[in-house]
Design goal:
Strand order of the largest sheet: 1-6-2-3-4-5
Order of helices and strands: HHHHHHHHEEEEEHE
Shape: elongated
Structural class: alpha+beta
Number of strands: 6
Radius of gyration: 39 Å
Distance between the termini: 112 Å
Strand content: 5-15%
Largest sheet: 6 strands, antiparallel
Amino acid sequence: MASHRRPKQPSRTRVTVLTATAAAAVALTSQAAHADPKPTKSEVKAKVDKLYHEAEESTEKYNGAKEQQQKLEKQIGALQDKVARGQQELNTLRSGLGSLAAAQYRSGGIDPSVQLFLASDPDSFLDEASALDQLTAKQTESLEKIQEKQRALAQQRKEAQDKLGDLVDVRKALGENKRKFQGKLAEAQRLLNTLTAAEREKMRQDDQRASRAAGDRVDLGNEVPASALGAAALQAADTRVGKPYVRSATGPNSFDCSGLTQWAYAQAGAQITRTTYTQINQGTRIARSQLKPGDLVFFNNTSHVGLYAGNNTVLHAPYPGAYVRYESMNTIGSFQAAVRI
């Protein structure tokens, strides 16, 4: 006889699991439908350019801290040498004082009146007494010199210790800025990696065409340079077109932005400082309307600098991955200031 059992009902636990799985699948489908679309090439370029500008700001701060570190290390070395020499002089003075004290002890161990009473030759005693007075005077002078030297050494040691403290702070700033620009560059590279190789190559070719077009505009502008010095610096920088941007590089085969301007003016016979933050305080500040070829032009809160080349165009080292090139001022970033060396 056939069995007529009732069908087994799914357990409550199984129903709950199935329901949760279905809900998760619906949620994932909904998220996929509303996921952010892949950024376009122009969006990637805009974000990458922004990251490069931020990285360059950290690079310039790094360069400034590096320069300050080197200066402090020289100053500390000089102070430490000075302290060592001073300590030797102090030891010599102390040794001399000991010799004087021994001579005084030998000459003055007995009360002077007793010495006079016992002396067989009063004239000889008086000569010895006079010599003793001279020893005492020399001893006093030596003590004063020792005290003066001790004060000077204490001051020099404090100065060296203060500078060592400054050096610790500078090295900390170096590390922080290094982490910042490395982070920005890594983020920029991640964005670039979202593009295909063909898209990245197209972006590079667009930059090259824009640079050539900017260079052609300079030739057509034919503006009079600010000075013979500015003309010579611009001419020197022009010979570096096509050289790669490398962080903290100062030439002659790679540059960062302020490294290029410093190198160009050095070829013209003028020594300017290393970073954008110090270069902006050299020469004469001028308005944008007064720009002439050879002037220094600063962008993006003074974190970027280039040489004005005429016809609203700048010759500069743009950012990592790019090369020294001509570029329209309108595409570099926000104009900050201009300086004529």
